[in-house]
Amino acid sequence: MIDDLIEQNPHYKSAIDDLIKHECKTDTLCESLKAKLLDPTEEMYVKFNRLYMKYRGKTGETWCRAQTMTCDNLLDDMLEDAISRKANIVFETVGTYYVSWLVDKLTSYDVYFAFTVLDFCDVYHMSRRVHSK
Question: Domain residue spans in the chain?
């Protein structure tokens, strides 16, 4: 998953640490930032999205592996390798469009689509209620 690659990127981790330091004036997550993360404002979405996209490789010269490729490029290579080995693949997407470019490559695969019709926050709150019982 692209998220795994980005979250393991030391430059991304450092940028998140810097954001915490800027918001909390300390190295540790403060209560005001925790509150913003639990009920994110548009400003927080923008800040985190900007960092995520930067370290994904959509903007700037930010590398995921050495200084040879972006996380997007690395994921593409990993996907091509998995297809060539006929490995099982789980591909996560936001689901706003049909991934014909990928399905066309999977000629020897059974392809299953799964999606949720609930808002992420609703699923999160439901899971907290279930686990608290």
Answer: 2-131
